[in-house]
Design a protein that fits this description.
single chain; 132 residues; mainly beta; Tumour Suppressor Smad4; 5-stranded antiparallel sheet; 5-stranded mixed sheet; 10 strands; 30% strand
């Protein structure tokens, strides 16, 4: 299960690191948690829908409130032959971080995920991976 939510702590950290470049960004007053099943999916795209490109990611961050810091093709969750999952940043503009770390993961490099790992994308989105 991938649990998608707006994460105030991550947003505040991003604002502190971004400085004046983050002017005009605000934390959404309401953002319902979403749960996306992982099993049987093979892969899940994380990003924002683009009518121009014809892309609709399985974890769509253009659903209100849209996360403006997420790229259209931000990252990918991919199932491995052993049933585990990896996250792969798709060379996103603002990067993908894990578990509150300050440094983005390397683009196009699969990073294995453990139960409870938190994937941070965009300005406030955290995706927590839960394995059964």
């Amino acid at each position: 299960m991938a649990v998608v939510n707006a994460d105030r702590e991550y947003f505040d950290d991003m604002m502190a690191r971004s400085g004046p470049d983050a002017a005009g960004l605000y934390f959404p007053p309401y953002s319902p948690e979403r749960r996306v099943p992982l099993t049987g999916r093979g892969q899940l795209r994380i990003g924002r829908r683009s009518h121009q490109r014809g892309t609709v990611p399985e974890i769509d961050l253009s659903i209100a409130p849209e996360d403006p810091g997420a790229s259209h093709q931000h990252a990918l969750l991919q199932e491995q032959p052993d049933g585990g999952w990896v996250v792969i940043d798709q060379d996103s503009t603002n990067g993908t971080t894990l578990n509150g770390g300050p440094d983005p993961i390397t683009a196009h490099q699969p990073i294995p995920l453990k139960d409870g790992d938190r994937i941070h994308v965009g300005a406030w989105t955290t995706i927590t991976v839960h394995r059964s």
